[in-house]
Amino acid sequence: DIQMTQSPSTLSASVGDRVTITCRASQTISSWLAWYQQKPGKAPKLLIYKASSLQSGVPLRFSGSGSGTEFTLTISSLQPDDFATYYCQQYNGYLWTFGQGTKVEIK
Amino acid sequence: EVQLLESGGGLVQPGGSLRLSCAASGFTFSSYAMSWVRQAPGKGLEWVSTISASGGNTYYADSVRGRFTISRDSSNNTLYLQMNSLRAEDTAVYYCAKKGTTMTPGNYFDYWGQGTLVTVSS
Known about the structure:
Order of helices and strands of chain A: EEEEEEEEEEE
Number of helices of chain A: 0
Oligomer: heterodimer
Distance between the termini of chain A: 36 Å
Largest sheet of chain A: 7 strands, mixed
Largest interface: A-B, 24 and 23 residues
Number of helices of chain B: 0
Mean pLDDT of chain A: 96
Shape of chain A: globular
């Protein structure tokens, strides 16, 4: 199975900060990576697919990059609504796995 | 508007069975693969199972293979998850999720249900 490792596990930041979350795959997955945002008690929301494609309706401050085994999610200017937990997910092959999550907290 | 509505969760004893349902609307159900993803209390997301658009191919995580069965009924736009031999570690919120594209590979999830809680305890 492909293991996905996110860093950091927790991130403290202020409104307006630029935030970067990293996701590493245990083997190459080309660009088959998605990012989700989840708030407490809610279902996850798709932000990015195919590593860098922005899902319809998602604010432009969210962006994704990377290929192979290393990927990043960047929030260019953190907004109050962005405090949440973020997950990466690989969809290469036929066993799909998520990272363990990165919680973005208010500093 | 795409809607996914899960039902069937509840409290079950270890070794017991439960069947989850997910009623889909707002899209052409028969054109998209569908999946179940779970989240144990306070933990991260875990992919559980996927069924192809036609229903002819099914995929399972190692943790549930041989105990869970995914199926779909395109005549009433419903996804199912039959869960047998349940264990305490199966306790989680179970989400149904729609594949984001008809292309392959492409098993990311663009719409999710609200989730249904399964608790396995004596």
